[in-house]
Amino acid sequence: MTLHVGIIGGGNISDTHARAALETDGIELAGYWGRNPARTARLAREYGGRVFSSVDELLDHRPLDAVIIGTPSGAHASYGTAAARRGLHVLVEKPLDVSTERIDALIAECDGAGVRLGVIYQDRAAPALAWLRRFILDGNLGDVFLVSASVRWYRPPGYYAASPWRGTWALDGGGALMNQGIHTVDLLLWLFGDVARVSAATRTALHAIEVEDTVVACLELASGAVATIEATTAAYPGFPRRIAITGTEGTVVVEHDRVASVQLRKDGGHAPPPDEGSANASASSPVVGDVRGHARVLADFAAAVASGGPLLCEGRDGRRSVALVEAIYHAARAGTAVAPGDVGAAR
């Protein structure tokens, strides 16, 4: 089965989506629409497919089975809704949107139309991180009680100046946490489950933006473990993401998307998969050099559409990370701990 896919958006991430599609069997790029015609024309020249003059023209084109949405985050739900109403499956770049209210409306539209709604969190497709999840679920770390996650990245002022939607509440939904740190938020939820309560502090330390470029949060997990997450786009020159996970039987350290260290009380011969040698430079650049993670997500999406099987991250699961970010922002503003389920909006 061939899945005919349209790309909505023309920025860096849409280039990533197009390259991933070319590497995925069973995917055919039907065309593109974005607000910058020169950018979508370049995508068509480099990767094939048509350029459409309006989003409605793209969505009405046939054959077309699905869309990948890579617009500014605050427009994800509106484009997803338009696609679902035409019977198209929807795959959305993270985050699903910038508020749970919009996400809930999108989920309802997709449910009503009988189409699949997926979110691109490529950490879930990384072999080393999938191994780590099984390793934890199998009890090899014992009872996990302490987790720390650090996303100390750097974005120069020009990163925000070149795309005025970035660093705004309306379209970015927040700053370092909602945009850059959201992958790690999703990863923590995927590995450890729900969060019962959060407290946090945010700062705008370096950039002239209306949202935070630095955040530190303390998470009390429903499991009883405690975790910290720090995210910034102000840490020059940018450093690899690092996550340390400690349980009663040892500690595992993750750097970027590979397992860098496994230290157990008893050596059980648990060797993680070999490092894939990712070329991504997320710590200092938004450009995705290695599209294997996106290609895996796209392959999973195509298989789920064909079979009706589960997605790596479907809409309701993708909602959880946005709900947690909303709670972190709310806790920082309120100066008190809050439960994610009690927060309807971050602003």
Produce the secondary structure layout:
Blueprint: E1 3-8, H1 12-22, E2 27-33, H2 37-47, E3 50-51, H3 55-60, E4 66-69, H4 76-84, E5 89-93, H5 100-113, E6 117-120, H6 127-137, E7 144-152, H7 157-162, H8 176-180, H9 182-192, E8 195-203, E9 214-221, E10 226-232, E11 242-247, E12 250-255, E13 258-264, H10 292-307, H11 315-334
Parallel strand pairs: 1-2, 1-4, 2-3, 4-5, 5-6, 7-10
Antiparallel strand pairs: 7-11, 8-9, 9-10, 11-12, 12-13
Helix pairs in contact: 1-10, 4-5, 5-11, 9-11
Molecular structure report:
- Helix content is 35%, strand content 23%.
- With 347 residues, the protein is α/β, with parallel strands linked by helices.
- The strands form 2 sheets. The chain has a 7-stranded mixed sheet. A 6-stranded parallel sheet has the order 3-2-1-4-5-6, with helices on both faces.
- α9 packs across α11.
- The protein is globular, with a radius of gyration of 20 Å.
- 49% of the residues are buried.
- The mean pLDDT is 94.
Helix percentage range: 25-40%
Strand order of the largest sheet: 8-9-10-7-11-12-13
Strands, total number: 13
Mean pLDDT: 94
> What's the shape?
globular
Q: Could you say which structural class the secondary elements and strand pairing correspond to?
A: alpha/beta
Unreliable segments (pLDDT under 50, ≥5 consecutive)?
none
Q: Strand share of the residues?
A: 15-25%
Order of helices and strands: EHEHEHEHEHEHEHHHEEEEEEHH
Head-to-tail CA distance between termini: 44 Å
Largest sheet: 7 strands, mixed
Number of helices: 11
Computed Rg? 20 Å
